Amino acid sequence: MDGFLISVISIAVTILFVLGLPIFLIIGIWVVGVSVVIDFTLANVGVTLFEGLNFFGLLALPLFILTGDLISGAGIAKRLIDFAYSCLGWMRGGLAMASLGACGMFAAISGSNSATTATIGGIMHPEMVKNGYNDKFAAATLAAGGTVGIIIPPSIIFIVYGFMMGLPIGELFIGGFIPGIMMVIAMQLVCFYLSRKNKWGTIIEFDPKRIALTGVKAWLGFMAIGIVVWGIYSGKFSPTEAAGITAGFCLLAGVFITRELSIKALPSILLRSGTITGMLAPLIAISIVMQQVLSQLGAKEFITELVNLLGGYYPILFACMAIVLLAGTILESLPNTIILAPILAPIAASIGVDPIHFAVVFLVGDAIGFITPPYGLNLYVASGITGIPYLKLLAYTVPYLLSLMVVWVIVAMVPEFSTYLVESMRPK
Amino acid sequence: MVKSAFSWLNENIEKCFILVSYAAMATIIFSQVIMRFFFQYQSPWSTTIPIYLFLWLTWMGASYNAKNRTHLRFNEVRERLSYKAQYVCLVMDAIVWYAFSAVVLYFTIEQVQISHDNFAIVQGTDDVMKWWFYMALPLSFSLLVFRVTQNLIVDTKMFLAKQPLIITTTMFGD
Predict the structure, then answer these.
(1) By three-state DSSP, how is residue B122 classified?
(2) How many CB pairs under 8 A join A and B?
(3) 20 to 30 A Cα–Cα from A309, which one of A52, A289, B119, B152?
(4) What percentage of chain B reaches a pLDDT higher than 70?
(5) Is A407 helix (H, G, I), strand (E, B) or coil?
(6) Which chain A residue's Cα is nearest to B115?
(7) Chain B CB contacts of A59 below 8 Å
(8) pTM for this entry
(9) A157 contacts in B (CB within 8 Å)?
């Protein structure tokens, strides 16, 4: 009888999900319904909504969100773009490749996909169109470039994943570093090929003086990247502390050095970041209650048995990847992670996949979901900032999508890409 | 006077909580790392108070998102539904919010009471009470219920006037 009622509740909330009820509420009402059926105390909801967020490491989430907003406001992003362009502008497709490089550098300070696309896209799209690129290709490039936002550390989703699965967030950050760079390079190769073939863009002279000059001007960006990477890699800061220091650094740099940030603008920046935090953190809290209920139901054992029927290491790993990709076509990365990670990560662990490696594989798949239709968030963001209809972007996104899939499979098949730096960082 | 005070609070109450808790949290973490790095000293409460401030930020943020209808959702189907069906969905949103909020309010008020009766203090402090921070949940969910009601009234007025309903939101989470 319980099984029947739980199935009815699950089907009902799935219908509510499809009808557009907020995801926080969907999980909440499922938890309440199932708890009543299995006689699991509802007081647990009250306690976990307080205590679920009681973890210092989780504070990195709001602080990195704030950092992303501060680097845009402080003009640091623009300086990084200028540097990337002077480094790559002498090649065919240089400006587009520089946009991708700038996405990578922006991602190394901020931790968000859509913020990467919105910030770099807002500056670079008009420049690319002016420079002779097809406007749809330019928008697709910026949508695809944003996907590295959650892979190159720091990353908001890595924090959520680490928190939920009990993995060290610093190690996860380091694990995403090489795959993130591989993603940027793969997309730059696509960009180079397509720009050459279609003769898009103009070429600037290779000028070491200009590279040095823009490099010096971008020192604030490099320093912010340095604080995050050095602090976490050397163990001097925890990820939360690195986030606090980087946010403070970007604020001071914007007010006193670039002077593009006024104290008056600070409340609106904090409010914007606070709104995003108020969207993500409640989801994390309620997902912890969901995990507790799932655990009471014995869901883990059931799914493990089911997946074990698939066979060995690679069939199970690829089945997990297919599930992540499929869910990513209709869900944002956060709900995707919250719903699927607690189910798939134990399965991967049971067949011997390294937890850090699986986290990186899972989240690269999640990142690819940002440019997969029907729900590709970065495509919506790119469409929003460029005014190009969403559907017209899709065809130009396909080459990037394919290149990212190749990187994804390589990262899945060669665990060392995710684990080498982590191993080297651990005390011997 | 009372009316203008209410109107100001209606517009700004969540914003005030978000700004104060966010700024305080970030300032404490930044300043304490600097203190540790340069003066080898760190206050014992510097890793606990920010966590409790995060509670206020999170749940007031949840209410603010309810007010602005920016909670994450899968909107593709709803946008394509008929006008009437869209209104039914909006009413359904409100009903489910009420039901879930009732559960949360009941059990979080209980927790606040337990914490208050036990004189529970925040770790690393001598006299900062935990319930001051635990109040974030009941207060935020009360406000959230109020915001949901306000939105429902707006939706009903628009529906009766046959004006376009507010379905699409524009905030991007990640």
Answers:
(1) coil
(2) 203
(3) A289
(4) 96
(5) helix
(6) A47
(7) 25, 29, 50-51, 54
(8) 0.85
(9) 174
Residue that is written with structure tokens 């999640």 in the block: A366
Which residues in chain B have their CB less than 8 angstroms from residue A63's CB? 26, 29
Q: Is the pLDDT of residue A58 over 50?
A: yes
Residue of A nearest to B167 (CA): A20
Instruction: Check CB contact of A22 with chain B, cutoff 8 Å.
Output: yes
Q: Are the C-beta atoms of A330 and A150 separated by less than 8 Å? A: no
- The residue of chain A with its CA nearest to that of B106 is A46
Higher pLDDT pick, B1 / A50: A50
DSSP of A346-400: HHHHHTT--HHHHHHHHHHHHHHGGGSSSS-HHHHHHHHHH---HHHHHHHHHHH
What the block records as the tokens of B86 is 């869209």
Q: Residues 209-268, chain A: which have Cβ within 8 Å of B?
A: 237, 240-241, 243-245, 247-248, 267
* A337-382 tens-digit pLDDT: 888 898 899 889 888 999 999 999 999 999 999 899 877 778 877 8
Instruction: Give the DSSP letter string of B46-68.
Output: GGTHHHHHHHHHHHHHHHHHHHH
- Separation in Å, CA of A91 to nearest CA in chain B: 32
Q: Nearest by CB to A271, which of B19, B97, B170?
A: B19
- pLDDT per position as a tens digit, A163-172: 889 999 889 9
Which member of B57, B92, B103 has the closest CB to residue A277? B57
Q: What is the pLDDT of residues A245-288, one digit of tens each?
A: 999 999 999 999 999 999 999 999 999 889 888 988 898 889 88
- ipTM of predicted assembly, 2 dp: 0.93
Compute the half-sphere exposure of residue A407: CA atoms within 13 Å on the CB side of its CA. 32
State the Cα–Cα distance between residues A381 and A40, nearest whole angstrom.
41
Out of A58, A62, A377, name the one closest to residue B172 (CB): A377
Choosing among A17, A18, A25, A69, which should be mutated to test the B contact, i.e. which has the most B CBs within 10 A? A25
CA distance A87 to A99: 11
Residue-level pLDDT at B169: 60
The amino acid occupying position A3 is G
A70-103: per-residue pLDDT in tens?
888 888 888 988 899 899 989 889 999 999 999 9
Sign of CA dihedral A384, A387, A392, A394: negative
CA distance A277 to chain B (A): 6
In chain B, how long is the greatest CA-to-CA distance?
65
Structure tokens at A56: 């210092």
| Banded pLDDT at A118 (limits 50, 70, 90) | confident
Is some CB atom of chain B closer than 8 A to the CB atom of A47?
yes
Residue B120 in tokens? 């529970």
d(CA A291, CA A299): 9
Q: Residues A52-64: what's their mean pLDDT?
A: 87
Distances (CA, A) of A344 to A299, A337, A349, A358, A362: 11, 10, 9, 9, 9
**Facing residues of B129 across strands?**
B121
Question: Tell me, what's the pLDDT at B170?
Answer: 53
Please tell me what DSSP assigns to residue B44. G
